[in-house]
Amino acid sequence: LAKTTQPISMDSYEGQEVNITCSHNNIATNDYITWYQQFPSQGPRFIIQGYKTKVTNEVASLFIPADRKSSTLSLPRVSLSDTAVYYCLVGDSYTGGFKTIFGAGTRLFVKA
Amino acid sequence: DTEVTQTPKHLVMGMTNKKSLKCEQHMGHRAMYWYKQKAKKPPELMFVYSYEKLSINESVPSRFSPECPNSSLLNLHLHALQPEDSALYLCASSQGGLAGDEQYFGPGTRLTVT
Fold this sequence. Notes:
The structure holds two protein chains of two kinds. Chain A contains no helices and eleven strands. Chain A has strands at 9-13, 18-23, 33-38, 45-50, 53-56, 61-64, 70-75, 84-90, 92-94, 97-99, 106-111. In chain A, the strands form three sheets. Chain A has a five-stranded mixed beta sheet with strand order 1-11-8-3-4, with no helix packed on it. In chain A, strand 5 and strand 6 (61-64) form a beta hairpin. Chain B has strands spanning 4-7, 10-13, 18-25, 31-37, 44-50, 53-57, 64-70, 73-79, 87-94, 104-105, 109-113. Chain B has no helices and eleven strands. In chain B, strand 7 and strand 8 form a beta hairpin. The chains are: A mainly beta, B mainly beta. At the A-B interface, strand 4, strand 9 and strand 10 of A face strand 5, strand 9 and strand 10 of B.
């Protein structure tokens, strides 16, 4: 199974860009990289997903180098409401289904 | 409608009780999931249903029994739980259960076993 490693926590200030890097050295050819956000007492929410190079949507960008052994979630101009836990997931094909393995997550604290 | 609903929001049960958690989605998704999440830990996958068939059981104790009556509903039957089973139980759904499918999560049921 592909495992992921992320920083346990990060601090930032409002208006700054935040980059959270995830290592996934054993990523398989078919695996996608997905990031979720979770607020306290809520279910995780999908942020962004990619396979290679760069993906951008209205809330974030995802940078994936050519070897795909890591990825970086970039949150532009964070606000207090971006304080949450961010999980990096690497999809893992499994006979009979798809297994979702959440990494330990990165707790982001955004300060005023 | 991109919502996954879960009932109840909170549940307190004794170790000899039998209770059920319910999850519902109306997005036409064909894969549904149960996760368990302890405080300050990531969600842990318990079960996956794909096209109403149980496709993954992560060696979950038999005191947890999942059921998928139809493609929109997912239940988790609880019996003879232990205090260490107290956690947030999350339900999720995705379009087809394929690698990379975006999962939509419900708000969870906060379970306390006394």
